[in-house]
Write a structure and sequence with these properties.
This protein is an all-alpha fold and 227 residues long. The protein has one domain (2-224). Helices cover 79% and strands 0% of the residues. The protein is built from eleven helices and no strands. Helix 2 packs parallel to helix 6, helix 3 (54-72) runs parallel beside helix 7 and helix 6 (94-124) packs antiparallel against helix 11 (206-224). It is globular. The chain starts with a helix and ends with a helix.
Length: 227
């Protein structure tokens, strides 16, 4: 499993799109932190310095799904289409492949968000551990969706389109469902991670629990999959 995690982690860092996303996160974090450090009067008394993380929080919540899905939508079905999955199965169990892929992607985003929060902490002179955990929990959910998508849809060319569609639709539905009183959207509110992230407290870890559930479903699906 360790080899699968390392391979997935390193392959993401070799991608031009991945490097562009990391730079985008760092630039946004640096620009926002520098702006607030030069305009301290904008920091509200009741919020303290947590306003520093508002930019990275908005970035993850609005574009997190799009970024994760666009970079890893074909993480498993690409292996199946290229038949390299048959080689992996001889070296590792099916469970190890799925979990390794998940952890490899998760580790990439963990490093990406950690780098951004490190930049913020240097300017704010404060650690935002809880906000960091919020973003990690949110991205874990997005990775769970990505793994399931790559298993359910067999063609990588199809997941490319679906990934873009979901990356745009999920944030819209998630934010809309929080304010809406419609019954269907109320259900959506409790299924997507936005309500729990905005609710805060121990609700922050609910998206991570959903991610674990999706991973279990992915394991069950992959066991029944013909390779």
């Amino acid at each position: 499993m360790r080899a699968i995690i390392e391979k997935e982690f390193k392959s993401l860092f070799k991608s031009f799109k991945s490097i562009a996303v990391i730079l985008f996160f760092l630039i946004v974090s640096f620009a926002a932190s520098k702006f607030f450090s030069n305009n301290l009067e904008l920091l509200q008394q009741d919020q303290g310095e947590s306003v520093y993380v508002s930019s990275i929080r908005a970035l993850v919540m609005f574009f997190g799904f799009l970024f994760v899905l666009s970079l890893s939508h074909d993480v498993i079905n690409r292996e199946v289409e290229n038949q390299t999955i048959r080689f992996l199965v001889t070296k590792s169990s099916r469970n190890a492949i799925v979990i390794g892929k998940f952890l490899g992607i998760f580790l990439f985003w963990f490093v990406c968000v950690l780098s951004s929060f490190t930049v913020i902490a240097l300017f704010a002179r404060q650690l935002f551990v809880f906000d960091f955990l919020k973003m990690i929990s949110f991205l874990a959910y997005a990775i769970g969706v990505t793994i399931l998508l790559s298993l359910v849809v067999k063609k990588p060319s199809h997941t490319t389109f679906i990934a873009i569609l979901l990356g745009i639709a999920i944030p819209v539905l998630g934010i809309w469902s929080i304010a809406s009183k419609q019954f269907v959207l109320k259900i959506v509110k409790y299924v997507l991670p936005y309500y729990y992230i905005m609710k805060g407290s121990y609700y922050t870890f609910v998206p991570a629990c959903f991610a674990a559930l999706m991973l279990l479903i992915a394991l069950a699906v992959f066991k029944r999959r013909d390779l």
